[in-house]
Amino acid sequence: MNTTLDQDGHPRVAVITGGAGTIGAALCETLALQGLRVVMLDLDSDRLQSAYQVHTERVGRPCTTVAADISTKRGAFAAIEQVIDIHSKVDILVNNAATKSSSLESFFAPDVDYEESTWGEVMATNLSGAFFMCQAVGRGMIERRKGTIINIASIYGVVGADQRIYNGSQYLGHTISSPAVYAASKAGLLGLTRHLAAAWGPLGIRVNAVTPGGVEGEQNQQFIQNYSSRVPLGRMANVQEVVAAISFLTSASASYINGHNLIVDGGLTTW
């Protein structure tokens, strides 16, 4: 069975929010190399252009790019309207977009000092934006009685953060923590996954989540050591290990998987 084509023999179309980020860009590349038509959707137009150029070089052909703010219903629906104008449909939606707000200092502030505006900004993208995107693609999927939605959550939507990991830890030069808003938004995303899986499953739409553990990137060496010591496999994930899980859930091999949270954390949540 050729899983790159829909039931009418047309290439499947996958929309990836946060498509210019580390996980998003790698996922766009993987799905494009499998033969899917990929839409790289991101708020940051400069980062989107850079990711587009890299994607074209690596894949050998361009993808579709859409610069959009999905934190409002209007923005999410406008983005999908652009996609429909180009590709006529959406077969796969991966809600990967997440934000650390417009200020890293505000995002990593102590819980007791957290600003209402920062809380609202993070929730608007991480949780509300995901729901708006589901709404935007949902009607078309329901009409075709076919579709796949994957929400990218986090281990901190499943378990509480071990604060000892953050002793001496930095990210892009900032002292870091794991704020309550991040945990709340990701836990909410898992609730949204279960709700839509139950509501839309009878309509032919599979809704699942992938929950990554820590992915090695811009953290300092102290954080990497602290985090790795908490993981049974003894290390952080690399991007491709997360992408492989997402790619699996888009495939025909996962055709009977619905409402599932696939945890990719090296065993951290087994403690």
Which helices and strands occur, and which strands form pairs?
Layout: E1 13-17, H1 22-33, E2 37-42, H2 45-59, E3 64-67, H3 73-87, E4 92-95, H4 104-107, H5 116-144, E5 147-152, E6 170-171, E7 174-175, H6 180-200, E8 205-212, H7 221-228, H8 239-250, E9 261-264
Parallel strand pairs: 1-2, 1-4, 2-3, 4-5, 5-8, 8-9
Antiparallel strand pairs: 6-7
Helix pairs in contact: 1-2, 1-8, 3-5, 5-6
Task: Describe the fold and architecture.
The protein has 271 residues and is of the alpha/beta class. It has helices at 22-33, 45-59, 73-87, 104-107, 116-144, 180-200, 221-228, 239-250; strands at 13-17, 37-42, 64-67, 92-95, 147-152, 170-171, 174-175, 205-212, 261-264. The strands form 2 sheets. Strands 3-2-1-4-5-8-9 form a 7-stranded parallel sheet, sandwiched between helices. It has a two-stranded antiparallel sheet with strand order 6-7.
Outline of the structure:
The protein has 271 residues and is an alpha/beta fold.
- Terminal CA distance reads 39 Å
**Assembly type of the shown chains?**
single chain
CATH superfamily: NAD(P)-binding Rossmann-like Domain
Order of helices and strands: EHEHEHEHHEEEHEHHE
Mean pLDDT: 95
Shape: globular
- The portion of residues assigned to helices is 40-55%
**Describe the biggest sheet?**
7 strands, parallel
**Number of helical stretches of at least 4 residues:** 8
CATH T-level topology: Rossmann fold
Number of strands: 9
CATH architecture: 3-Layer(aba) Sandwich
Unreliable segments of 5+ consecutive residues: none
Backbone structural class? alpha/beta
Rounded to an integer in angstroms, the radius of gyration calculated over CA atoms is 18 Å
